[in-house]
Every structure is written in C-alpha cells, then in structure tokens.
Amino acid sequence: MQDAIFEDHRPRLMALSYRMLGSHSDAEDAVQDVWLRWRAARHDELRDVTGWLVRVCGNICLDVLKSARRQRETYVGQWLPEPWVPSIPPEAEDNLILRDDLSQAYLLMLERLDPVERVALVLHEVFDWNHDAIAPVIDRTANNARQILFRARRKMADDVPGSPLRAADIMMADRDDIAAFVEAFGSGDVTRIMAHLAPDVTLHSDGGGKASAAVNRIYGADHVARFFAGIRRKAPAGYISEIVRGGAEYWLLLRMKSGEMPVTAISFRQDDTGLHDIFIHRNPDKIALFARLAA
C-alpha cells in the first residue's frame, strides 16, 4: 500500500527534482533518497502525504544544489541542463512533466538563482505553494520566503525588463521553424541561415570536455550564422538530421549513420524576430538520454 502511494507520487517528485537540479541522474538520486525516508516515516502521522513528500524532496534538492554549484565551477566549457527526455511514455507521465518550464531556456534562466531562491520559485510557480508552506523547506520565516521570491523574480526579469520571465512567456521553436532552419543550414549559405535568426541570437554549446563545442557563448546573427556555415563545410557527407519531440520542446538530432546515437542535439527558443537562443548539446553523456525516444 505504501509502495503504491509513493509510486503514484514518483512522476511529480521526479519533475520537481529535475527542475531544481537540471540533471536526470541527480534527480533520480534525489527521488531515491525521498523513497528511503518515506519507507522510514510513520505514515499514520502524516496528514498531507503530498506536502510531506514535496517538502522532503525540496530539502534534498537544496543540499544537492549547493554541492552541484561547486562541481559546475570545474565543468569544461559551458554547462547546460540535461535535456528532459521522459523515461516512460508521455501519456503515463504526470502533466507537470510536460509543461514548458522544462525547456532548456527556462531551466538555464533558473541557473541565475541561488539554491534557496530556486527551490522557493519552483515550489511557488510549479506547485502553487504559498509563503507559509515554502518557509519550512528553505528554513526561513514566511516573510523571508516572500522576500526571497521577490528577489528571484527580479533576477528572472533580466530578459524581460519590468516583469519576470515565466515558462508561459517562452516560445520554443516548432517543428516547421526547425525544419526551415535545417534547410538553410544544409545550404551552408550565411545569408539564408541569418534569415532565421533573431538579431540578438545567443548560441550556447555544451561539450563537457568530451566533444568539440564552443567554449564561450556566441552572440549576434552574423556570428552565429557563420558558426553554422563553418560547421556545414566541415560536416561529413551523408549526415542524418531528425526532428523529435523530447518532453517540453522539439530537438534537432544529427547522426552520422542511421541507427547510431546522435552526435549533436539542438533545441531552440524563438521570439517574434526569429530564433533567439540556440542550445547545442555535444556531451555524449547527455545526448545518450535520447535513446529513450527510440521507436
């Protein structure tokens, strides 16, 4: 009975952990720690099972975040959150797992926050917890929790002056937009590639020291278009491109041969002026997650 209750909550806890940690393996470890504490808990004393599980999960993630920040300081090149690729079919997932706040754009923006701010914001915006409920998780008073949320929203407002950027404000590129970009990329023509990019586009690239990637972010349509044109010139003939849906967003996967794992995975955020952020994954450890989408 208790096992079944926990399994009912597992998708919710996994979605919560991933939003906070940006890593499948870290999120899975955090949920496993929640499971161990659940097994040791006095269930007859729990009045709100969901609240208890989420609080325990939040506290575990808070501890992990503090150490993860130190580890990322030694990461080779740019660090990007792991792609959210569901481990079970979407129709069996909790609806929280499929929301737009699992996109690369939103998760990377959450990286602006310190661990306490991130936990507080996720609990408030995803689970609709009020300040009183959040306070014990972050070991603060309700008034402090309110101030922390205000500060977190201010940091998230950097991209949209005057208002915090929420998941609902983020436009992820759809399949047709990505297909049009792929066609332009295939031509290797800088002008054609630029036509799909916002003037202030930013390219983020994560190789993790295990695959070639841009060490620093690349800014501006001209620089980004020339970057892609250069890649196209160097790409071997016969590479295979595929557009897939992975959780909250579409991904462009590039393979050298049919049936092989992708060597590159790319997602896009867009606005009214074109593709605004491009997220390139080349770290094979993160790309391996796309094996979950195999038909």
What are the key terms here?
295 residues; alpha+beta; 7-stranded mixed beta sheet; 11 helices
Structure report:
With 295 residues, this protein is α+β, with helices and mostly antiparallel strands. Helix content is 47%, strand content 15%. It is built from eleven helices and seven strands. It has helices spanning 2-21, 24-40, 49-72, 104-110, 115-127, 131-138, 142-156, 175-187, 190-194, 221-234, 284-287; strands at residues 171-172, 197-206, 218-219, 240-246, 249-255, 264-271, 274-281. Strands 1, 2, 3, 4, 5, 6 and 7 form a seven-stranded mixed beta sheet that branches. Helix 1 (2-21) packs antiparallel against helix 2 (24-40), helix 3 crosses helix 6 (131-138) and helix 5 (115-127) packs across helix 7. The longest helix is centred in the N-terminal third of the chain and has 24 residues, at 49-72. It is elongated and about 65 Å long. The two termini are 34 Å apart.
